[in-house]
Specification:
The protein is mostly helical. It has one domain (2-35, 51-140). Helix content is 69%, strand content 0%. The chain is built from 6 helices and no strands. The longest helix is centred in the middle third of the chain and has 25 residues, at 76-100. It is globular.
């Protein structure tokens, strides 16, 4: 397990370094354009639905509801771990965003539906998904 953790940390460092140096890497624009070619309203609605819980603090609503449920069943340690994981994930993501400072893609390059004011790397909603839902899957397991 320690070896896997070390490899994950090394890979995260390498990707962070690349993102700090290059605005767009590894076909970011090409992959985004490819995905955006799917002009089906069902696909668009699916992508909005999948992304919705991770934006604008909504993950905190889910987290607090799950904490309330865990406390209801007297799982205090699990509730504390969930909150600590979500909070530390948020802090870590924002610290890395400040260090790396990777800009968001320009509307000249891709279709931009919403333009958040934060840096683009690492993805805050993906990190919150991993911290919150990853922990929930761990608890279920």
């Amino acid at each position: 397990m320690k070896k896997i953790t070390n490899i994950g940390l090394l890979a995260s460092g390498v990707v962070s370094g690349i993102c700090a140096v290059m605005a767009y890497a590894f076909g970011d624009i090409q992959i985004t354009r490819f995905i955006q070619r799917f002009d089906d309203p069902y696909f668009h609605n699916l992508m909005v639905a999948v992304s919705w819980p991770g934006y604008l603090g909504r993950q905190w609503i889910v987290a607090l509801c799950v904490v309330a449920l865990l406390l209801r069943f007297r799982l205090r340690i699990e509730a504390a771990c969930l909150l600590a994981g979500a909070a530390s994930s948020w802090l870590l993501v924002n610290a890395i965003k400040l260090i790396v400072g990777r800009p968001r893609p320009s509307p000249d390059l891709i279709a931009v539906f919403a333009y958040p004011v934060t840096w683009s790397f690492p993805s805050g909603h993906v990190a919150s998904y991993m911290a919150l839902y990853g922990f929930l899957f761990y608890l279920i397991y």
